[in-house]
Amino acid sequence: MVKKFFKILLLFFCIIFIIIMIKKHYYNDYSVKNLNMNVKGLKYNIKYKGLKSSVDFTMDNDGNYYIAYKDKIQIIKGNGKSYYLFKNSNLNIYSIEYFNNKLYFSSDTKIYCYDIKNDKTLEIIKDIPNYGDYKNSIIKIRGNYLYIAVGAATNSGVVGEDNKWIKENPYNHDISPKDITLKGINFGKFKTGAYQSYKTKSINGQIIPEHFPGNSSILIYNLNTGNMETMAWGIRNVTGMDFTSEGKLIAATGGMEDRGVRPVKGDTDYIYEIKRNTWYGWPDYSGGDPVTSPKFKGKANSMLQFVLENHPTTNPPAPLYQHKTLSSIKSLAVDNNGNLSAKNAMYFYDISNKILYKFNGAGAIEEEVKFNKGDVCSLKFYEKGLLILDGEEGYLYSIEKGNINNALKVNKSIYFYLLALVVVLIIILLKAEKN
């Protein structure tokens, strides 16, 4: 009897050891940790998994989720049923939104509308100048308006060898959404001017006529009438945008980099409030400061020069927040209902250190969540909290108020199955002993 007891005890501890090793060496890799100890209580869960290579998501009022991939869109219904609404190898989907039983999504130079009930796709916007460095348009819907971010074609307004796309599009360059006048400064051994194709010079006083739509801008499209206009311009590249409870458009933008024939040293990423009919400074200002200020340096630490003769303003808006690093903010969401924290707190993901930050609009940012692996590609608030899509690992996380859960368990059912295995093995062992 004692011998039987020790066999059962040994078996039990072996199973417990297996559970601990699985949790330590496999599941813990997918955990997130709450780094802000001042948070009264947040709970972390995985809403859906198996979403590898996804790029964005949205949801409707009936609890259905729509997951966008490069060339297809998947629906996950409230009852758990999942299937693809459509697939199209010609698409290059980047951003998706839901409105009135329709899905709107960006793909290369176009915006599409997919009617869910009729299973029909319609091209509603075309000829967006998405051929350059920042060619993926983020879209956002508020009310009856669709907002579309159009990135710059170049780093700082001048085409150079750092723009790998010149091999396929040698005549491409930045297109201005408003009339501008150039100073006639040319760069590099081929003397390329701003807003010119590669190896094309500019001259002093040269007027670049307005073109719609243009690069480095945000567009507004009326979903009822189909009318479209430029909301704001001089915005290098938007990496995330959302709205406050008052309807203010908040956007994360990337600063100019130390590359190309007009390199810029000393810049960082920013978060702005975007206002109508406003110029935000690119390519001669960044973060509200002129590139001629001591903050920035050019090639061989030289002083930078303006490329525009006359600026729409010498005092473009300053950002709400200046990040410490460059090319690191990816995705942004505003807690406009105060689900997790202060109302209108801004949450953004830093790809360089895999940290989700919170910014309340003033003061220092706060570290909210640290990801051990994966890559967040989209953040969106819903009625209970924040949803986070990790397209690299294939998880849609939810963060809500509740008891603190510092280690996010990927698959709770594994413990149930292992416990059941222990019981079955004990029963088998007992029967064997009787025989």
UniProtKB/TrEMBL annotation:
<dbReference type="InterPro" id="IPR011041">
    <property type="entry name" value="Quinoprot_gluc/sorb_DH_b-prop"/>
</dbReference>
<feature type="transmembrane region" description="Helical">
    <location>
        <begin position="414"/>
        <end position="432"/>
    </location>
</feature>
<keyword id="KW-0812">Transmembrane</keyword>
<keyword id="KW-0472">Membrane</keyword>
<protein>
    <recommendedName>
        <fullName>Glucose/Sorbosone dehydrogenase domain-containing protein</fullName>
    </recommendedName>
</protein>
<dbReference type="InterPro" id="IPR011042">
    <property type="entry name" value="6-blade_b-propeller_TolB-like"/>
</dbReference>
<keyword id="KW-1133">Transmembrane helix</keyword>
<feature type="transmembrane region" description="Helical">
    <location>
        <begin position="5"/>
        <end position="22"/>
    </location>
</feature>
